[in-house]
Design brief:
It is built from 15 helices and 15 strands. It folds into 2 domains: about 70 residues, Roll (SH3 type barrels); about 290 residues, TIM Barrel (Alpha-Beta Barrel), CATH 3.20.20.70. Helices cover about 40% and strands about 15% of the residues. The chain has about 425 residues and is of the alpha/beta class. The longest helix has 25 residues. The strands form 3 sheets. An 8-stranded parallel barrel has the order 6-7-8-9-10-12-14-15, surrounded by 5 helices. Strands 3-2-1-4-5 form a 5-stranded antiparallel β-sheet. A two-stranded parallel ribbon has the order 11-13. Helix 2 runs parallel beside helix 4 and helix 4 packs across helix 11. About 45% of the residues are buried.
Length: about 425
C-alpha cells in the first residue's frame, strides 16, 4: 500500500479541479501542472502534486479497489454513533455535536471535565463518528525531515534550545537532505515537513532548497523553521512550499512569555496570519499540561486554532527537556490529552485534520491507536536519517527514536488496516 490513491480528473475550472475516486468526488487545487479532464493525478492536502499515466493509475486503482472498500466497511462499523448516555446533559451535548451544531465554551468545559469512563468512551465514539462523517476513512500520513538541531532561541522547555549545552549540534548538507527526500518519495510519501531549529539555515538557502526539491519531486512541502519574517514566508511560497507548521503553543500571553522569554505571542500569531494570507496550509496548535494552564485556556487554544484557519490541529503534551529551566514538571496524563483531542474534533472546523503527535506517543505506546479511535485523522512519521534523528532531542525518549522508516511504515499500515483507514489524503469534499 502506498500513501496516495490516484484519482481521475472530471472537471477543471481554473485552478479548481474536481477529481473522482471510486465514485467519490473531491476537489483539489492545481498550481503547478497542465491538467485536463481524463488525466489521472495524485493530490495531497487539497493540492495536486503529480500527474500519472493512465496505465499506471488504472493498475494502482485496480490493486486498491477491493481492499479500499473493505477498509471503508471496517471504518463504518467502528465509527457508528454511540447510543445515548444515562447522563442527559452529556447526551444532549454529544447529539448536538454529531448533528454539526456548534458547542459553547461551557459545553466544551463540561466535556473536558468528564471523569466517568463510560462518558469518556461516548465522547471518544462521538468524535470518531464526526471524523468519519467529515473525512471518511482517509488518514493523512505525512513525513518529517529534521534537517538541523542548531537554534538561536532560548525557549524554556525545548531540548534543542541554547539551554542544552551538552547537545551535539548538526546541520544536514544539501545533498543529504535531497537524498532523504528521495528515499521518502520512493517509499510513497506525497507530503513532507522540512524542519529545523530557528536560524539553522539562511532563508535564501532554504528557499533555494525548496525550489530544487519541488522541481525534482512530486511533493506537498511544509516549512517549519520557527519564527520567520513576512518576506521569508513569501520567499518560501514562491519557491513552492504550500504549508507551514508553527504551533502557537498557548493562547495565554503570560503562559507564552514563560515559555519564550525572547518572543511575544502576538509575533507568532502575526506570522500565522501572514501565512494564511499568502495561501499556505496552516498546521498549528498548542501544548497540553503547561504549568498554570486551565480548561478555559485550553478551550481558547482550540478556538484560536480554528480562527487561524488551521488545516491541521497539532496539540501535544508539555514535555520539558531536563537541560532546560522548566525541567522537572510532571507530564500530563495521556488519557487527558486524548480526551482533549476528542473535544478538539467536536469544536474544530469540519475540514480540519487532528494530528496524533509523537509527544503523545512518547507518553503512551497505545496513543496512536487510541487517538485515531477518538477523532484523530493524521499521523506523522519521522523520515530523518537515524543518525540525525537521535540528535533532534526536543524531549527525552522520543517515540520511534532509532526506528527505521520501514518499520514505522509497516507498523502504521498494520494499525490503519485494523481500523479500516486508508493511508491517504483524498482532498476535500466539493
Amino acid at each position: 500500500m502506498c500513501y496516495a490513491i490516484p484519482g481521475r480528473v472530471v472537471a477543471v475550472d481554473g485552478s479548481a479541479v474536481t477529481v473522482e475516486y471510486y465514485g467519490q468526488y473531491k476537489t483539489a487545487r492545481n498550481e503547478f501542472l497542465d491538467i485536463r479532464p481524463g488525466d489521472y493525478i495524485y493530490a495531497q492536502g487539497g493540492y495536486i502534486v503529480e500527474r500519472v499515466s493512465g496505465t499506471e493509475a488504472e493498475s494502482i486503482l485496480a490493486a486498491w479497489k477491493e481492499v479500499f472498500f473493505e477498509l471503508q466497511e471496517t471504518d463504518l462499523r467502528l465509527s457508528r454513533m454511540p447510543q445515548a448516555s444515562s447522563d442527559r446533559k452529556l447526551s444532549r451535548i454529544l447529539d448536538q455535536a454529531a448533528e454539526g451544531g456548534p458547542l459553547t465554551d461551557a459545553q466544551a468545559e463540561y466535556l473536558l471535565g468528564l471523569d466517568d469512563p463510560q462518558g469518556i468512551d461516548l465522547l471518544h465514539r462521538t468524535a470518531n463518528f464526526l471524523r468519519h462523517k467529515y473525512h471518511g476513512n482517509s488518514c493523512c500520513v505525512h513525513g518529517i525531515i529534521e534537517m538541523g538541531n542548531a537554534c538561536t532561541q532560548s525557549c524554556a522547555y525545548c531540548g534543542i534550545s541554547r539551554h542544552n549545552r551538552s547537545l551535539k549540534r548538526y546541520r544536514m548538507a544539501r545533498e543529504e537532505i535531497i537524498e532523504a527526500v528521495r528515499r521518502a518519495v520512493e517509499l510513497g510519501f506525497k507530503a513532507l515537513v522540512l524542519q529545523s531549529g530557528q536560524d539553522c539555515y539562511p532563508a535564501g538557502e532554504l528557499a533555494a532548497l525548496i525550489a530544487e526539491l519541488k522541481t525534482a519531486f512530486p511533493l506537498l512541502i511544509f516549512a517549519s523553521f520557527g519564527e520567520v519574517s513576512r518576506d521569508e514566508l513569501e520567499e518560501f511560497y514562491a519557491a513552492g512550499a504550500r504549508g507551514i507548521l508553527l504551533r502557537f503553543e498557548t493562547s495565554d500571553a503570560e503562559l507564552y512569555k514563560g515559555l519564550h522569554p525572547e518572543s511575544r505571542l502576538e509575533n507568532r500569531l502575526e506570522i500565522l496570519r501572514w501565512a494564511d494570507e499568502a495561501g499556505f496550509l496552516i498546521v498549528t496548535g498548542g501544548l497540553i499540561g503547561l504549568p498554570g494552564q486551565t480548561r478555559q485556556s485550553i478551550i481558547r487554544d482550540l478556538r484560536l486554532a480554528g480562527e487561524l484557519n488551521a488545516e491541521m490541529f497539532s496539540f501535544g503534551p508539555f514535555l520539558p527537556h531536563p537541560a532546560t529551566p522548566l525541567a522537572g514538571q510532571n507530564p500530563p496524563r495521556s488519557d487527558d490529552i486524548i480526551k482533549f483531542l476528542a473535544v478538539a474534533r467536536l469544536l474544530a472546523p469540519p475540514r480540519a485534520k487532528i494530528l496524533v503527535t509523537t509527544g503523545l506517543e512518547t507518553l503512551d505506546a497505545e496513543a496512536r491507536r487510541r487517538s485515531l479511535q477518538a477523532g484523530c485523522s493524521s499521523v506523522m512519521l519521522n523520515v530523518t536519517p537515524v543518525e540525525y534523528g537521535r540528535l533532534y532531542h526536543i524531549y527525552p525518549n522520543r517515540a520511534h527514536g532509532g526506528e527505521s522508516i520501514e518499520r514505522q511504515i509497516g507498523d502504521t499500515l498494520d494499525l490503519l488496516k485494523c481500523l479500516g483507514r486508508a493511508p491517504t489524503d483524498l482532498g476535500v469534499q466539493p
